[in-house]
Design goal:
Number of helices: 18
Distance between the termini: 25 Å
CATH architecture: Alpha-Beta Barrel
Helix content: 40-55%
Largest sheet: 8 strands, parallel, barrel
Strand order of the largest sheet: 1-2-3-4-5-7-12-13
CATH superfamily: Glycosidases
Bound molecules: 2-acetamido-2-deoxy-beta-D-glucopyranose
Shape: globular
């Protein structure tokens, strides 16, 4: 029996693919932080309370047909009023840390063009104080997709360099008011993903795009994403420069760290021919490098320059200075893996075969076999091995810069119709076990990963998917807004509590 078990473990440790039940908290290094993630617009609601202004998502929600089921974030989970309950839930899970974001329109209802809203500041002060009291470390995202609509109406938000000034003004107010308690900042959540959604597909506000990517009323899908990314990156760089210079005393005093979050999906070549291998490299460079190369090395990826040439802006010498090394850690959001198919030498869909997409088609099937089990988001099948692969890619490309996995989670392919069905979420538990196993192996092979956050605490407003896509450890009854723990919440709690060392040594490891 025990010999069998040992042999079984050897196999599972070397293959790290299908034996999730063997994952244990002690597979992660000392000081490794576990947490849960949320974002302001997805949970807060209270969209007009206490002088918060209308933001881009409030406006987008009102535009018919933009969001599944006509959902909006006006009430969301009413976290604004129920935050205390939610912090109690967070504490009950036994996590080390909690990642949330600040609502820009709550703090600065009119951006730079009006006053700071003291009630907005007070709300986040209460959250930070509660977390501190309970020994939970806050990871704070400054900008997670939502901003005051006035900045859109005045000058077109991220399409204009003026947005950089607004962002830096806002970030400065966050540092000043919250910096004494926040040791882990994230400047912007998923700039590449946001940019593609908002300016290439038109699936996020301000819903700009052009054919063949979509039929928006205005926009240019080839050019605008490039301009928007440049503004977001410079906004990041300028805010970090300010944080490090003006708030140096804070940073030194408390060891504050600042990073940027990007969704880091893995790309595997569809076939082993050279073209597809190059396509996989381009896929990674376009989706990850577009954000991370500039903040690590001060310039855009070569893979992008080769194709986009002069369409890609240059950073000035002064900008390169502050862009370079402008992160202390990489905040990695990871969900899935895709096959990459080359579109330079073979034919692809019209949208894939474009310079702005690096001539890479994202394919989920190889020889008739799906890359992974489906989830509630068709582009995000379950591919545990890809997690370790992308962590290794980041380790190599960015010289093993410290990483925190700030999002990883699962949504059911079919929205559960019955409560009992929603609560019995074994597939979510299996997802986390397998992904954690893949991560643990990458860490044992030297990847400098320091934390892992589940997306997400509560079922929430999943942007254009509305409330039907459920990623939460807690089920939200949309009528009563009751928070009901799913099995996965119980599993996470047990996982975090279990400090019993696994019986078997990891024989199969190198
Ligand atoms: C845009 O509209 C045209 C004409 O109505 C239609 O043929 C095309 O499929 C639409 N494209 C997208 C991406 O929706
Ligand atoms: C960027 O710099 C390169 C090399 O100095 C130059 O050839 C190119 O024209 C510049 N591109 C833009 C968009 O200014
Ligand atoms: C705790 O972890 C050990 C080692 O992995 C495992 O054998 C045990 O079943 C776990 N206990 C619980 C309560 O999950």
């Amino acid at each position: 029996m025990s010999l069998f078990l040992v042999m079984f473990l050897v196999v599972s440790a070397t293959q790290a693919s299908i034996h999730g039940e063997f994952i244990n908290r002690l597979d992660f290094p000392d000081g490794f932080m576990f947490g849960v993630s949320t974002s302001s617009y997805q949970i807060e609601g209270a969209y007009l309370d206490d002088s918060k202004s209308i933001n881009n998502w409030d406006v987008f929600s009102l535009s018919p047909g933009k969001i599944d089921n006509g959902d909006n974030g006006f009430i969301a989970n009413d976290h604004y009023h129920q935050y205390l309950k939610d912090i109690e839930i967070i504490q009950s899970l036994g996590v080390d840390a909690y990642r949330f974001s600040i609502s820009w329109a709550r703090i600065l209802p009119r951006g730079r063009f009006g006053e700071v809203n003291p009630m907005g500041i007070m709300f986040y002060n209460k959250i930070l104080d509660e977390l501190t009291l309970r020994g939970i470390k806050p990871f704070v995202t400054i900008h997670h997709h939502d901003f005051p609509q006035e900045l859109q109406d005045r000058y077109g938000s991220w399409l204009s360099p003026l947005m950089q000034e607004d962002y830096v003004h806002y970030a400065k107010i966050c540092f000043k008011n919250f910096g004494d308690r926040v040791k882990h900042w994230i400047t912007i959540n998923e700039p590449v993903y946001f940019t593609i959604m908002a300016y290439q597909n038109g699936g996020y506000p301000p819903a700009r795009c052009s054919p063949p990517f979509g039929n928006c009323s205005a926009g240019n899908s080839d050019i605008e994403p490039i301009i928007v990314m440049h503004n977001m990156l410079l906004a990041h760089g300028k805010a970090v420069k300010l944080y490090r210079k003006i708030y140096m005393h804070l940073q030194r005093q408390q060891g504050g760290l600042i990073g940027i979050a990007e969704v880091c999906g893995m790309f595997e070549p569809l076939t082993d021919n050279d073209y597809d291998q190059e396509a996989a490299s381009r896929g990674l460079a376009y989706s990850i490098g577009w954000a991370l190369d500039p903040v690590m090395f001060g310039d855009y990826p070569l893979e992008m320059r080769e194709i986009l040439g002069n369409q890609l802006p240059n950073f000035t010498t002064a900008e390169i200075e502050f862009m370079k090394d402008s992160i202390d850690y990489i905040a990695v959001n990871h969900y899935s893996t895709t096959y990459a198919k080359d579109c330079i030498h073979s034919s692809c869909s019209l949208t894939a075969a474009q310079p702005i997409n690096g001539f890479v088609d994202r394919v989920r099937e190889q020889n008739g076999v799906q890359i992974g089990e489906p989830t509630g988001v068709p582009s995000l099948p379950v591919v545990p091995r890809g997690f370790g692969e992308v962590i290794n890619y980041l380790k190599k490309r960015y010289n093993n810069k410290p990483m925190f996995v700030t999002e990883n989670g699962y949504s059911e392919p079919e929205t559960p119709q019955l409560l009992q069905e929603a609560l019995q979420d074994d597939t979510r538990i299996e997802f986390h076990k397998l992904y954690l196993l893949s991560l643990a192996q990458a860490i044992r092979n030297g990847a400098n990963v320091k934390g892992y956050f589940v997306w997400t605490l509560l079922d929430d407003f999943e942007w254009r998917n509305g409330y039907r896509t459920r990623f939460g450890l807690y089920y939200i009854d949309r009528q009563t807004l009751d928070r009901i723990p799913k099995q996965s919440a119980k599993w996470y709690q047990d996982f975090l509590k279990n400090k019993t060392r696994p019986l078997t040594v990891r024989i199969g490891d190198s």
